[in-house]
């Protein structure tokens, strides 16, 4: 599986994507012709102030939202125009999600939550990969606990493991540390970082935190629905500076 | 505070509709019952007022055995013709007419079948000319004894025309007449209230309807123009002395109507009983909805507490909401009930063939009971959730609220105590006092107890049931969801339990009774062939007595005996009696131990009757038949009640003074070596002239006798259907709220790749698990209740306990289907959720 992935250098791509909400007077343009590629095996952050369209861009990339104009690709597949059924399959097999609100099923144990996408697809987890992921998440004996018995950081680690388990083309993370204290947040970010470094996972993360952004390979800055600048190998300072320079303060 | 409550109420329309619907349906039943009985009551008022409008005063002999409309048919005591002259001579009487008018003239239609009436009587009368209401449509009244006239209702139903030869069954066997006239009524009506009328000449009517020449059933009196009918009535009464009922036309109309209203009152009570069950089930639904609403409003309520709202205000806010829902639902239910009432009245009118229903009215009782019942039920159901709302601490507003699983210990203990109390009430009711109220109360309390135990039971049972679906991911998720909130699942299932338990219980009791009676008949009835008909009105079908003798003459027949039934007074107490042509032959034909032939002044009684009344052989009892004078009978034999078709046996001579002077059943026992195939066709040929009766073999006869039980089961199923429908609303409600509560979860599942079909399957499994769990509880509890009743009735001859496995399986299967149906809307809603919006949902 890792072999097939290497054939396509770009994991996700947006071409001239427009997103318009409402019509006539109530028209809100969330994205105005955004084009961006997210390279395979890279960790990318999308930053921007509230209302800049960063979440909308991620949702469109992930096939959760439809675009008004332009196209979105995941790997070699054009997402735009897919039926609900095909979108569901795409999300199930080729995309992973990590949300701010952890979003675990309270009725399932941690292990069951991790396995959920594979179960839905009717696939068995690769035992080696299972051990690797579960091992890195470091939940140990808490695997058979239900979410209500886990701390916020632990819950988010379960969510990360769930996203990794199906080895998706790309994982989209929406403010994954937004609900965590800084220590737990740092753990999650290191974990995401290492899954990129060690396993070649592609991750696209929306954040407004310069420190979180500094864990990534590249930062894309959005303002008013358009990309205003980019930054390779960011540090917290360089991110802050760019934000100040571009007046894209969050 | 009030404004905040009302606003929050309006913002949750869906829940309002769903929880209100249960009350609407229950109240609909209540108001429908009142509207129906009120409208039918006025219909009968009008009917009888018109029917008696042509009569100023009527004279009738006091009935010898008084029987009310509910208990059977009043047999009229005939009056001698000489009395007509006496009445005619009373001052103020312009005209006195001897009239014969009695139920039981059955016309055989052009298709050879007896014309049925579904309720209204089939009157045989003497022709005394037309009055102001009657209009001759064709021909004339009968002038010769072999002529008849009929009203248009008969002519149309029978498909006969003037000039036709028409067969009529009366007290006499089938006789053929020439139809010489057809009459109708003013305003182009074929009849008044669907009553079928056949008019004979006076002598023929006396023979056919009374079996006695020179007698009448009543004398109708027209008073002089200047006379007050009630004054003339008093004059006549004084003149005739006691022994006669002298009444004005208005009195007669009021009396007849009152009798019908008694019967309607009974009907009303039955409907109200089922309405009670429906509302009881509705209470569960409302309780559940309000609990969920309170749980979901925790933050809002806590905020109000934090802002200084008192506990009392919290309770008030929930109760006001209940009050508003209850009021709106009661008004809607009242309106729907009026519609249902109008529908039932129309249905009743068209079924009885020509009854003109009075305009539908809404009696005050309907309005008051609807409002009270609707509001009280809703508010009572909301009390517990309201109290819970008041316990929410202000701090809950600031916290991320997760409702922790409260332990089930308290509710379980309470349930066990209440359940035990219910069982105790039931036990005392069944075995001790035999009080219906105690039994019903016991059932109700037992239901509440079981409902409280349900959360505990639900854990293992729901898990077990869910295993059936665990082979797929959606199934497993659905199963886990159904076990998530044991209280909610339990109440939803308990609501379904009530209806199904009642249906199952009734089925157990009736099936057991049916089986016991059939088994008993199988053991006692030795007659291979039975002559008789299906009774579908107050009058059982009868046949010519001569058939008995002819049947006895058929080669291969060992013995034949007929039986007659009547209500008589024995030593002043009304009793059901049976007469037979020859008790010794009846014993032989029926298969009883040998009994003597009764002489005309002898009577035989069952040992049960003898014990009850302290009778012994040799004792003389006085028997008053519906006609004729009191006679003395000597008890000459006692017998085992199970072995003879009747508990008091009279000789043949007594039947001359019965209301029905012809036999209702004939038992034919074959000689050794004779086969049913040989004899049955010949017996059938003997009753060919009586289309209402037939000759059947023994097993068909037994099936016919117990067949009515199935009708009762069907009726109960239909009437409890509403309670089950309300329970289904509860399942829909619970699911809809679950979907709403789990919006974010559903969004997540869709985001990680759960397809729409899978989402729907997940919701459906949850519904099916809840429904089947409810049905399972119902079947178990119902079987238990039914078995308890059967056990208690052992002394009454219900000895076999029959558990209707087939029916129970059917109910479980239906519950699964109900679950699937209940899940349709919620699952569509779940599948259509916008993934993005769902994930962001707070």
From TrEMBL, chain A:
Residues spanning the membrane: none
InterPro entries assigned to the protein according to its UniProt record, in alphabetical order: AAA+_ATPase, ABC_transporter-like_ATP-bd, ABC_transpr_LolD-like, MacB-like_ATP-bd, P-loop_NTPase
UniProt entry tagged with the keyword Hydrolase: no
GO molecular function, one term: ATP binding
Pfam families linked to this entry: ABC_tran
Gene3D superfamilies in alphabetical order: P-loop containing nucleotide triphosphate hydrolases (3.40.50.300)
Limits of the ABC transporter domain: 12-249
UniProt entry keywords in alphabetical sequence: ATP-binding, Nucleotide-binding, Transport
UniProt keyword Protein biosynthesis present: no
Cited PANTHER family: ABC TRANSPORTER RELATED, IMPORT ATP-BINDING PROTEIN
UniProt protein name: ABC transporter ATP-binding protein
From TrEMBL, chain B:
Domain of life: Bacteria
UniProtKB keywords: Cell membrane, Membrane, Transmembrane, Transmembrane helix
Sequence ranges assigned to domain MacB-like periplasmic core in this UniProt record: 18-238, 489-685
Entry's localization field: Cell membrane
Occurrences of domain ABC3 transporter permease C-terminal (ranges): 274-394, 719-834
Bilayer topology: Multi-pass membrane protein
Main location: membrane
TM helices/strands, residue ranges: 270-294, 315-348, 360-387, 408-430, 436-457, 489-510, 718-740, 767-790, 810-828
Entry keyword annotation includes Transmembrane helix: yes
Family: Belongs to the ABC-4 integral membrane protein family.
Protein name (record): ABC transporter permease
Native source organism of the sequence: Paractinoplanes ovalisporus
Lineage: Bacteria, Bacillati, Actinomycetota, Actinomycetes, Micromonosporales
């Amino acid at each position: 599986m890792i072999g097939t992935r290497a054939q396509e250098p770009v994991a996700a791509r947006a071409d001239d994507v427009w997103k318009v909400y409402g019509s006539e007077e109530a028209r809100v343009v969330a994205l105005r012709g955004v084009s961006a590629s997210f390279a395979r095996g890279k960790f990318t952050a999308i930053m921007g102030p509230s209302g800049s369209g960063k979440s909308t861009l991620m949702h469109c990339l992930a096939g959760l939202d439809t675009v008004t104009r332009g196209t979105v690709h995941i790997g070699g597949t054009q997402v735009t125009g897919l039926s609900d059924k095909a979108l569901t399959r795409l999300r199930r097999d080729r995309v992973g999600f990590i949300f701010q609100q952890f979003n675990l099923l309270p009725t399932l144990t941690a292990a069951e939550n991790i396995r959920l996408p594979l179960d839905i697809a009717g696939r068995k987890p690769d035992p080696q990969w299972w051990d690797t992921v579960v091992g890195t998440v470091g939940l140990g004996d808490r695997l058979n606990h239900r979410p209500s018995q886990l701390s916020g950081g632990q819950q988010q680690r379960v969510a990360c493991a769930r996203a990794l388990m199906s080895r998706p083309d790309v994982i989209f993370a929406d403010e994954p540390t937004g609900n965590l204290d800084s220590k737990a947040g740092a753990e999650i970010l290191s974990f995401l970082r290492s899954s990129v470094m060690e396993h070649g996972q592609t991750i696209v993360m929306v954040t407004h935190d310069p420190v979180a952004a500094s864990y990534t390979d590249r930062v894309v800055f959005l303002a008013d629905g358009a990309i205003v600048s980019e930054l390779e190998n960011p540090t917290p300072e360089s991110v802050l500076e760019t934000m100040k320079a571009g007046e894209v303060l969050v | 505070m009030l404004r905040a409550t009302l606003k929050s109420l309006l913002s949750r329309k869906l829940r309002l509709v769903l929880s209100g619907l249960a009350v609407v349906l229950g109240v609909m039943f209540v108001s429908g019952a009142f509207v129906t009985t009120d409208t039918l009551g006025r219909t009968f008022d009008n009917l009888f007022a018109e029917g008696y409008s042509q009569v100023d005063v009527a004279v009738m002999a006091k009935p010898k055995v008084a029987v009310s409309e509910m208990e059977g048919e009043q047999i009229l005591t005939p009056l001698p013709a000489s009395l007509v002259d006496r009445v005619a001579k009373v001052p103020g009487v312009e005209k006195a007419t001897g009239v014969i008018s009695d139920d039981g003239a059955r016309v055989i239609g052009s298709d050879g079948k007896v014309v049925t009436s579904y309720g209204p009587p089939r009157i045989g009368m003497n022709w005394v000319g037309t009055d102001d209401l009657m209009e001759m449509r064709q021909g004339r009244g009968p002038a010769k004894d072999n002529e008849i006239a009929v009203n248009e209702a008969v002519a149309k139903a029978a498909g006969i025309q003037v000039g036709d030869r028409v067969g009529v069954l009366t007290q006499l066997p089938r006789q053929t007449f020439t139809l010489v006239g057809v009459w109708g009524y003013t305003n182009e009506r074929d009849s008044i209230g669907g009553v079928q009328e056949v008019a004979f000449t006076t002598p023929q009517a006396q023979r056919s309807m009374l079996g006695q020449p020179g007698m009448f059933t009543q004398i109708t009196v027209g008073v002089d123009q200047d006379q007050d009918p009630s004054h003339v009535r008093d004059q006549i009464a004084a003149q005739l002395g006691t022994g006669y009922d002298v009444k004005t036309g208005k009195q007669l109309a009021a009396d007849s109507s009152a009798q019908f209203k008694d019967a309607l009152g009974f009907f009303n009570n039955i409907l109200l009983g089922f309405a009670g069950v429906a509302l009881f089930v509705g209470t569960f639904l409302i309780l559940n909805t309000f609990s969920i609403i309170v749980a979901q409003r925790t933050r809002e309520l806590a905020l109000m507490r934090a802002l200084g709202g008192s506990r009392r205000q919290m309770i008030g806010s929930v109760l006001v909401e209940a009050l508003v829902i209850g009021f709106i639902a009661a008004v809607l239910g009242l309106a729907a009930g009026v519609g249902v009432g109008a529908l039932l009245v129309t249905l009743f009118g068209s079924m009885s063939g020509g009854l003109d229903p009075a305009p539908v009215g809404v009696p005050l009782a309907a309005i008051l009971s609807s409002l009270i019942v609707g509001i009280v039920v809703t508010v009572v159901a909301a009390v517990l959730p309201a109290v819970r709302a008041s316990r929410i601490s202000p701090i809950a507003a600031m916290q991320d609220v997760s409702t922790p699983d409260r332990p089930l210990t308290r509710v379980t203990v309470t349930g066990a105590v209440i359940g035990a109390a219910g069982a105790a009430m039931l036990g005392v009711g069944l075995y001790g006092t035999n009080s219906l109220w105690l039994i019903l109360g016991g059932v109700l309390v037992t239901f509440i107890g079981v409902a409280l135990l349900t959360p505990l039971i639900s854990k293992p049972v729901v898990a077990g049931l869910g295993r059936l679906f665990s082979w797929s991911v959606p199934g497993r998720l659905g199963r886990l969801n159904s076990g998530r909130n044991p209280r909610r699942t339990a109440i939803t299932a308990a609501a379904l339990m009530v209806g199904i338990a009642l249906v199952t219980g009734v089925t157990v009791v009736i099936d057991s009774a049916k089986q016991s009676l059939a088994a008993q008949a199988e053991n006692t009835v030795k007659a291979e062939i039975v002559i008789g008909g299906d009774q579908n009105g107050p009058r059982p079908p009868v046949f010519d007595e001569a058939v008995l003798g002819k049947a006895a003459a058929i080669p291969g027949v060992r013995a034949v005996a007929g039986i007659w039934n009547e209500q008589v007074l024995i030593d002043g107490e009304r009793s059901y009696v049976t007469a037979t042509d020859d008790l010794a032959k009846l014993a032989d034909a029926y298969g009883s131990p040998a009994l003597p032939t009764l002489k005309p002044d002898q009577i035989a009684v069952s040992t049960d009757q003898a014990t009850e009344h302290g009778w012994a052989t040799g004792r003389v009892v006085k028997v008053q038949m519906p006609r004729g004078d009191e006679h003395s009978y000597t008890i000459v034999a006692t017998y085992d009640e199970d072995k003879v078709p009747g508990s008091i046996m009279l000789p043949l001579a007594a039947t001359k003074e019965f209301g029905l002077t012809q036999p209702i059943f004939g038992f034919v026992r074959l000689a050794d070596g004779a086969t049913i195939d040989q004899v049955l066709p010949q017996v059938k040929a003997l009753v060919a002239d009586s289309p209402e009766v037939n000759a059947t073999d023994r097993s068909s006869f037994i099936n016919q006798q117990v067949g009515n039980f199935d009708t009762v089961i069907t009726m109960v199923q239909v009437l409890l259907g509403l309670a089950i429908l309300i329970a289904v609303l509860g399942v829909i409600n619970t699911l809809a709220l679950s979907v709403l509560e789990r919006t974010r979860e559903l969004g997540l599942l869709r985001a990680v790749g759960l397809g729409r079909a899978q989402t729907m399957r997940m919701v459906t499994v949850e519904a099916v698990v809840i429904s089947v769990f409810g049905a399972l509880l119902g079947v178990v509890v119902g079987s238990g209740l039914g078995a308890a009743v059967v056990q208690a009735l052992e002394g009454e001859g219900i000895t076999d306990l029959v558990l209707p496995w087939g029916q129970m399986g059917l109910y479980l299967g239906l519950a699964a289907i109900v679950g699937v149906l209940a899940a349709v809307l919620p699952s569509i809603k779940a599948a259509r959720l916008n993934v993005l919006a769902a994930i962001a949902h707070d």
